[in-house]
Each structure stands twice: as C-alpha cells, then as structure tokens.
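Next comes this protein:
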Amino acid sequence: MLLEKGALTSDWMPAFKAVPRDAFVPDRLWPGTAGGNRQGEVIDRKTDPARWWGKVYSDVPLTTQWDDGAHPGTDKGRSPTSSNSMPKMVFSMLDALSVGRGNRVLEIGTGTGWNAALLSYRLGPDNVVTVEVDPSVAEEARRRLAAVGLNPLSVVGDGAQGYPDGAPYDRIIATCGISTVPYEWVEQAAEGAVIVAPWGPPYGGQGVARLRVGEDGVAMGQFVMSSAFMRLRDQRDTFPPTDAFPGASNWPSTASRRTTTLSPDDMGSWHHMFTLGVQVPDMFCRVEWRRAGAYRLWLLDMGCTSWATADHEPGRGEFEVAEYGPRRLWAEAEAVLSWWREHGEPGFARYGLTVAPRGQRVWLDHPDNPVPVRVP
C-alpha cells in the first residue's frame, strides 16, 4: 500500500521490514483519520486484538496519549498529546530528509520511538539524537527501542532548544507542528544541512517545510506536502475566550450587518487556513455548531478588540455576516482570499519559508516574493 502511494521508497524498505510498527504501539490506542484531527474510540489489544492489529497496519495516525498524560482513562481526553504518525507521512518526511551514509540526525519529538528506530536502523544509533519533552513518553520509547536492539541518544528536554551537545547535525526532523522555526535548530545545523518540519500559523493549515541551511546562517526552502501534527509543547497556542470580547456575549450587539458570498466552509480549507493565518497572524476562529449541519463561524483577533461571525446553512449561496470592533475581520478574510485567487489559487508546493537570525517569512514562488502580512 505504501509503495503504491509512492511514500515508501526502496531505500527505506529494509528499515520498514526490520523495524515493525507494532513494536512501537502500546496496547491501548485511539485510531485517527488521515487528516489527523479526529480520533476514534479506544481499541485495546488485550480485548480486541484483531482490530488492534488492523489499525496498526492501516495508514492512519494512532493517538497514544491525551492531555500530557493527565487523562489515563479509556475515553477520549480534551487534546491528543502523543501519537504514532500515519506511515505515509512518516516515510514521506523521511524521504524529504534525504539522509545519506554518515549523516548525524537530530529528531525533535520522540513520541513512541518508531521514527527514531527507522533512522537508527538506516544510519546507526550513534548517528541519531532524539529529544522528547515528556519524561514518561521518553522512557517508554527508550524501552521499545532497546527491545529491538536500537539505542540512539534519547534526551528529555525542550525540543525548541534542540540538543547543542550533539551538534552539528546534517539533518534535523521535527515530528511535531511549529509556527516558528526555533533558530537554535539552524545554529546547530551544519552548512548544507536539511531541516524538515511541519509548519503552520496559529489560525490553522499546516505544511511540511524542507529547508536547506546556507553558509550565511539562513535556512530556506519550499513546502513539500500538507500535514496535521500536534504542536511542539513550547509553541502551543492559547486563545482568549469568546466572552472576553466586547459585545460577543450579547451577539449581535451593535455589530455591522451584511451578507457575503464567501462561504464559511471556505475558511476551513487547509490551503485557505494557511494563507489566512500567514497574512493575518493575529486572527483565529471558533465554530458554534447548530442543527442539521448549520453553524456559526467566529473570527476573532488576539488583542480582543474585534470579531466577526458568518452563519452557514447547507445549500445557501449568501451568508449573514456581523462585524464588531475597530477591525472588519470578515472583510480582511475576503481580501486575503481575493489575493489567493488573483495569484492562481496556490497550493503548498508554491509556498516557501526563509528562517534568518532576525525572524522568518513565508514567500510565494520565490524567496524575493514575500507573502504580504496585514498588520492592523
């Protein structure tokens, strides 16, 4: 199946056969969807081995921890915080990493340890350093790695800091989402090194960036695929509650009212979310569900000054909009998506990322063509 999808290349086949996924999956798991943003009910190997094996060898992500371990029960918790990623994504990212004999690799986010095991088998454990922020997750991964005879250097620490004691690295791979590439990773990379990391703005939409580190200390490259990874703990987003916004608790308050042909459904497209988040970095959204597929989409700003809502009903071509505060957030979103259409409706492959000592920027088609950032 992975060969048919083009995700598993021949150079990774020996590692795939030698390091079975089931050796890195606990007895209790919550299978996800390909997008990684929904989890099914728990499956326990002890009580339902057939389903457990079926999911382990399906191309889906497997949640293995909720709420940083604070939720130990069989029900789903609030937020998934550790997982075994879907095999297609694992091998697609390893392919993008382009490892070669003798490469030293830094992995950010050990998780269950499967990715570290694959790298260790391919390159040798002495060439792999893996960093995990959660001590219990790290310890379980060490146990599983040792059971298959692979013992890379396993470090408990903040992945945002990398691991300078093992630098320089020829390759750096993150198995967690980020909204800012920590410059420490660039500093710990050798000249010409490759960094592969899932990057996305707080609004949503995430893609895997493949960056090459230059002699000037600047990392630059394009996005190679879409992704949906849990956030690096150091970069988790905290959004203010809706009732902290003036006028929101007594909607519509004194909001301006109008209609729009921009469907709230369009605001949930992965490419649209990415483009919106890049151009309006202080905007976030919430969904208020109603009956029969109807819902209200809220757009809000991090400064708690403005909000906008649009009411979606299936089958409608026009939607009621309310905008409150000094900013007109729905109009800002309309302007971003107009820009997107005017530029040929770009997908991830046309976007790129530059990371320099003074910051980072997203660009379209060429590093000299930065995507505009709309500052209020």
Q: What stands out?
A: The radius of gyration is 22 Å. The mean pLDDT is 94. The longest helix spans residues 329-342. The longest strand covers residues 189-199.
